[in-house]
Automatic annotation (TrEMBL):
<dbReference type="InterPro" id="IPR003754">
    <property type="entry name" value="4pyrrol_synth_uPrphyn_synth"/>
</dbReference>
<dbReference type="GO" id="GO:0004852">
    <property type="term" value="F:uroporphyrinogen-III synthase activity"/>
</dbReference>
<feature type="domain" description="Tetrapyrrole biosynthesis uroporphyrinogen III synthase">
    <location>
        <begin position="15"/>
        <end position="267"/>
    </location>
</feature>
<dbReference type="Pfam" id="PF02602">
    <property type="entry name" value="HEM4"/>
</dbReference>
<protein>
    <submittedName>
        <fullName>Uroporphyrinogen-III synthase</fullName>
    </submittedName>
</protein>
<dbReference type="InterPro" id="IPR036108">
    <property type="entry name" value="4pyrrol_syn_uPrphyn_synt_sf"/>
</dbReference>
<dbReference type="GO" id="GO:0033014">
    <property type="term" value="P:tetrapyrrole biosynthetic process"/>
</dbReference>
Length: 275
């Protein structure tokens, strides 16, 4: 029973390979495409003001990838590229994002002791799990930037987490480091989707984003054309990495919705225990 990994590339292929290595049949079928931000100068400004930031919150591996990709280059006069200040913290909602931030930020001087993230044995990885680690810090008049994605209309920050920081006295800004869209399926991916629609109970859709479900319904399935099998939602199976995503899948009509933590080990366990 194949697991369809719907994360953006290259995460989708990476997860599919990791699941296959654990004996779980998996294939990448990305529902979200990642591109650079519409206004990269906003990221450059943030780099030049890092010394005035108490913390940068990275919402995903993609936010880390594009933030460090858009790091300003050394100037012709010999001025170096901006480095990560010793007093500035980094935060991530889970270990996957934290690992990406540290790996990409090492060249800029970011060290593991500056990272704040829920431990790998946490039951959930999200803003709610992160905030207890941040709440004890001194926040009045401190500046916080949420490095996030978005679309052509602007950045999508973390509303709940922003509210917590603001109540604690911090000044919070969302900076768009990348933009998300549905992208386009290649012919092989369209064929895989048609197979999943033709045999809905023999495939499991692995969702790590509610937006991925929206793109599936509003963009990818209609793009398959009228000759493709119609979705039989009641027979379709979803495995979701957060309660809100599971609620969204159920609201769309997925007949079987299960939930697990957003780790390869948790997905493997959930797939092995599935009936």
């Amino acid at each position: 029973m194949p697991t369809l990994v719907t994360r953006p590339e290259p995460q989708a292929s990476g997860w599919a390979e990791a699941l296959a290595a654990q004996g779980v049949a998996a294939q990448p079928l990305p529902l979200i495409a990642i591109e650079g931000p519409p206004h990269p100068e906003a990221v450059a400004r943030l780099w030049h003001t890092l010394a005035h930031q108490r913390l940068l919150m990275f919402v995903s591996p993609a936010s880390a990838e594009w933030f460090f990709r858009l790091r300003p280059q050394p100037l012709r006069d010999g001025s170096p590229a901006p480095a990560w200040p010793a007093q500035t913290l980094a935060a991530a909602p889970g270990p996957g994002t934290a690992q990406a931030v540290l790996a990409l930020g090492a060249a800029a001087g970011l060290t593991p002791d500056r990272m704040v993230s829920p431990p790998e044995d946490s039951t959930q990885f999200d803003s709610e799990a992160l905030w207890p680690l941040l709440a004890p810090l001194d926040w009045p008049d401190q500046r916080v930037s949420i490095v996030s994605g978005g679309d052509t209309t602007g950045a999508r920050g973390r509303t709940w987490l922003t509210a917590q920081w603001q109540r604690a006295g911090a000044h919070v800004e969302a900076v768009q480091a990348y933009q998300r869209g549905p992208g386009m399926w290649a012919s092989a991916q369209q064929a895989l989707a048609r197979q999943a629609l033709a045999a809905p109970q023999a495939h499991v859709w692995l969702f790590s984003s509610s937006q991925a479900i929206d793109h599936l319904v509003a963009h990818h399935l209609p793009a398959l054309g009228h000759a493709s099998p119609r979705p039989d939602w009641q027979r379709m199976r979803a495995l979701c990495t957060h309660p809100r995503i599971a609620e969204h899948a159920a609201a769309q009509g997925f007949g079987e919705v299960r939930q697990c933590a957003p780790t390869v080990a948790a997905v493997v366990q959930a797939r092995r225990s599935a009936p």
